[in-house]
Structure formats: structure tokens, C-alpha cells
Amino acid sequence: MKIENSFEVDAPPEAAWALLMDVPRVIPCMPGATLAETVDDDHWKAKLAVKLGPISLNFDADVSREAADPGSRVATLSTNARESRGRGSATATIESTLVEQNGGTRVDIVTDLTLTGPVAQYGRGMVQSVAGQLTQQFATCLQKQLAAPAPAAEVAAGNGAAAPAAAAAPEPAKPVSGLRLGFRAFLDMITSPFRRKKP
Questions:
Q1: CB 74 within 8 Å of CB 67
Q2: d(CA 66, CA 153)
Q3: Most buried pick, 77, 115, 175, 199, via CB within 10 A?
Q4: CA separation for the pair 131, 3 (Å, rounded)
Q5: Count of CB atoms within 10 A of residue 31's CB?
Q6: What one-character DSSP code corresponds to residue 102?
């Protein structure tokens, strides 16, 4: 399943690219996701909470940076997630492309998603419908990150004054909620077979 989304941030491509490369700051911007562990510069572990109506799903995910080309500003992440109660898995390849636009940056995201096991029947019918809303939440969080002071670990040079404090980590996003974000999509999923039977 391929999902394409785009959004704009009010920051130059250089700043947006630097943030995109700081994966520990980006992961909490993904709705329902929290960073669990930094393995090395290109590998992380995360947790993802998803709620589809009465069904709560919790995933343990391995996130890897597969490629990053600062010249073309194209980065690729891969995710391999397993539902903690054995109710299926999800794998995704996420390619992000940054393009300068109107003094800011347009971010184009192409996600190639595969759902397997019982989780596939829960989520497949809703993914396309709620993806745009999830992307908007993600964009808003990135915009807040870009507007925050850049982290600084050293004392400001020349005057002995303390450097500005590092930007605060983003507030953890609430679990992705099928009722909150995709109630209409959920209804579409369970009623579409009946609608298709109509003349």
C-alpha cells in the first residue's frame, strides 16, 4: 500500500533537513510514537500506540535510516513493527523529499506500507483515510520544533554567558485514535461491502 502526502513548514530547507536528520526529535512528532532507545546513529527503537475504536494496539518498532542525500535532500527510513500481543506486524519504507517553496520548505512523503496478520483487517481500511490528518499533526509538531531554540551545549563565546537552553523535547503525541481521527473512515470500512451490493 503506497501513501503519498505533502506539507509545508515555514523554515528554509537547510533547517528542515537538519531536523529531519535528528531522528530522536522527529519520532515523538509521529502521532502515538515514543522513542524507546537510540541504538546508534542510524538505528532506533520506538513504541507506537494505536486505537481503532475499541481495539488498542501497541507496537514495538525498529527504525533504521537507510539513506540520506543532503544534495538532493532525500532521506529514507524503514520501520519494522510488531504488535506486542502478537496481533500482526507492519513494515514501512518512508521516503522524504524536501523542496524549497515560497521561502519555506515543502516536504513530500511517500510511504510504502505493508500490514500482515490480524492487524491488517483492523487497519487497512482506515490508513488512507486518516493518513492526511496524521500528516497534518506531524507537520504541526515539526513546525514547533523548527521554531524552538536550537540546542546548544557550549557556553556562548566571548562573554562567559550561558548558552541558551536546549529546545525542549516535543510533548508525546496521543495514541492514534480511530474514533478521534477516523470514525468516518471506520464506518466506511465496515459498511462499504453492503454499499457495493446496491444496484
A1: yes
A2: 28
A3: 77
A4: 8
A5: 23
A6: T
